[in-house]
Fold this protein.
Amino acid sequence: MIATRKVNWISDADIQGFFDHVDHQRLMELLSKRIADPRLLRLIQRFLDAGVMIDGRFHETDEGVAQGSVLSPLLANVYLHYVLDQWFEEVVKNHIDGEAYLFRFADDFICCFQQADDAKRFQSTLVKRLGRFGLSLAPEKTKLIRFGRFAARDSKEMNEGAPKTFDFLGFTHYCGLSREGKFKLKRRTSKKKFRAKVQAMSDWLRGQLTTPLSIVWESVQRKLQGHYQYYGINDNWPWLLKFRTATKCLLFRWLRRRSQTGKTAWTWESFYRWLDRMSLANPVKLTDLIAAYR
């Protein structure tokens, strides 16, 4: 939509503690719109009222849905379908002058607008809309940015510097140019997700000091392949290699730490000789998202 439609502004908003603040009464009212069986509704109500165990202690739940449970993602999607999706299609789009589009995945969503006034009115109205259902926005994570094919030109005319970026589903989206010099929406791994993935790899290796090397190596290969499969999209090749390099450094430190003969057992020279025999998984190809959605 950003690349092919009239999109000039992005409303990037974040619902504060969404899974912890779902209103049980409101949720049951919304569920009853499509579910007529009272037994099923009672079962869902019992699930919501069951409480949670945190560090061995029971906590009552008068609001929210338990994160990690099998039913919570479904209930959360139903809740936001009525709170956000349906409202945007039936109300917001009928009260604005330009084009507008909403993209949501669970509680993460991005709204695209053609006109700045529409985007500003939407953000102010969104606060009231969410408040009616016991939800609120995180002010520090909510912003309105100029974005799209004319963002670079308009930002320059307004002395705003380079166009801003936004993060969505683990990627930083930014305005770029294709090889032909035309506008292109580009993406790279967001710095926040990259640091989290590297930290997760480090924490996992720290717990594998006594695990046989062959098992650890196989698991590392699978972790790298999984990372490549998700983040292996257009324009993100440098960040794939960056994650591979970070993993390689973590492996070197892990091998030196688990060596019984001390740190002198492994040097970078011996480590690279070992990598020649036990090759580390490389990214193979990138997915062209534009071609995939044509």
Observations:
- The longest helix spans residues 237-258.
- The chain has a mean pLDDT of 89.
- The beta strands are 9-14, 52-54, 57-59, 100-105, 108-113, 143-146, 166-168, 171-177, 183-189.
- The first strand starts at residue 9 and ends at 14.
